[in-house]
Amino acid sequence: MPQVSLGGCRVNKLALMSRNRESGASDATGRSGATPHYQAFLSYSHHDSDHADWLHKAIERFAIPKGLIGRVTVNGPVPRSLSPIFRDRHELAASSDLGQTIRLALKQSRFLIVLCSPAAAGSRWVNEEILAFKKLQGERCVLAAIVAGEPWASTIPGREAEECFPPALREKYDRRGRATGKRAEPIAADLREGRDGREAGKLKLIAGMLGLGLDDLVRREQQRRQKRLTYIAAASLAGMTVASGLAIFAFDKRDEARDQRREAEGLVSFMLGDLRDELEPIGRLSALDAVGTRALGYFEKQDKTELSDEALAQRSHALNLLAQIADKRLDPVGALARYREAMRSTAELVERKSDDPQRLFDHAQNVFYVGEIARDRGDARLAKAAYSEYKNLADRMITVEPNNLKWQMEVFYANENMGIILYDQRRFAEASRLLESSVRPMGSGVSIDTNNDDYLKEYSTLLAWLADSYAAQGQLERAITVREKQIAFLRPLADGQSNVVFRQHLIPAHFGLGNLFLSQGKSDRAIEEFRRSIAESERLLPVEPDNAFWTGLAAQSRLQLAKTLLSLNDRPGAALHARIGCEQAKRVLARDPGTAWRRLQTDCFSVRSRLAMSDGNMADAMTLARQALATARTERSADRNRDRYKIAGEFRLLGDVRNRMGDAAGAKAAWKGGLAQIPKSVVERPLETRDRADLLRLLGRTNEARPLYARLMAMGYRNAT
Fold first, then answer.
1. Nearest to 62 by CA among 80, 44, 75, 74
2. CB of 695 within 8 A of CB of 676?
3. What's the pTM?
4. Segment 140-158 mean pLDDT
5. Same domain, 187 and 221
6. Do 375 and 394 contact (CB within 8 A), yes or no?
């Protein structure tokens, strides 16, 4: 007889059609007859009733996205709902013949969902239900949901009691429902915390029942969830207004005021906890801003000297949230002020109880961000002091609770920060060794807690810095390997999860890999990576156009692609990307005219000057080259020597323009000015060595330039001329 696949589940097609006619089963339009037909049979031990209650309701109440209803999959048309689900411990009470009821329900159920736990593995009735279902419909319609214990623990001596798969689930059956004696590999979702978790596990089960890919279902669910969260945020803010107003109005009535304050602070806790956790991954800055502002507004109306420890901590969380939003909107001054204010609150909490690792952790986060902003704005001294204090706090956490994974990860982050300080000091070899020392333990932390977004993001950041430290030493192949590893790590996270930060990390990852390929003279591969970087930014920007940080990353990739295309004589392509990149840079600088993103303005003037020169428009080329040099002089980073190389590069451009105009003396003067900017006796990055060699060559000092080029060629650099 013909067979139809049910997402890995095979059912006799004619029998299914006959059964549906006999039972009056629900079809894709939701119509049903008198005899019940079940989407699934839920089998579980009574010890797991709480899990069964949740899963039963979660599946039956799941709102299938409208765009999917009626779509034909391997399981047939997608129905309007996944109701009803048969529960053998729920519906059986009305029947005097339990065996007959179960057999009929199993026959009328499309799937069997088994809640797997040690209790289920030891349950005779759960095992009998699996056997009966496999004999009726084969084993491919069986879905497992792990709630406790460990799969296949029965094969490990000493751990047999942890087994969560019932015996019938562990054995393979043929299409006629006969035991084969072979080991089965049941399709399983892991509902345990720290694994798939309840929500992701539920979606896995539903995707299997509908015959859909998990990514498709997750994407639709994210779209629905974003709309729902917008409503929740609005309702929470309205509730906060009422609750805080009531608390203040009733302040003089002690009992009532205390109750109202407790209610208001409970709502604040929800807003800064669960609601923030839901909104942050989808990147909605306006909603997050409203949450943080409303929560902070509540505390600002209180007497700060009377705030409890919990309230003081919540106030710090509100300030931290607002600081992060300001940072993403490229308001570093506002962000730094918020972080410092939050840091004062967490410092007071640490002073009240110095051996509380959670308080040390909260304080460390604010200290870190103060250092991060300082570094971005070129204040290396403050950045180093903040990173050192962060490391001190991390060490104190691990002293209090040495076996706590979260605190252990903080120590690794602290080492990463100190590696960045070494990088800024041009101690590249030391930086790479320190960064390398954290790769394995941080990777282990990620593998232990695969659902911890913070661990995942920091591991990606660590790989990025390690790649840059290798590149700074001229180790191109090692740098490329690490960048490719970072991208391979990020890709499934960006495509399969709702957290926008993973896609954000892909933008500079592809950009960095493109620059490495460009150094090797592999222009085609470099262009491909720059285009991927741009594509990732274009997927993010519509999510939150107000995120100036994303806009800055997009502009950086556009301008580098424009410069590369121009070097390959693709003038139209270069002009297009330069125009878009400069427009984006202008929007970024309108938000943050300070030094952090000034390099975008320099790069914009520089590439436009080169375009004008390629068109023979030398007057514009000269004007733009002078503007590029002027803005380069204003750049400030944590590595002041790097800033001087940037100025030298714009002197080189000015000399090139003057040379094209026939002003040999002016060109030579500009090139000499560039060479004079290059610091003496510093460890150079390879690209800086190339810039120095180019200036020496242009000035006719070829004997000095030749060994520099030879050194670069030995390292694998092929674009040195």
1. 80
2. no
3. 0.60
4. 89
5. no
6. no
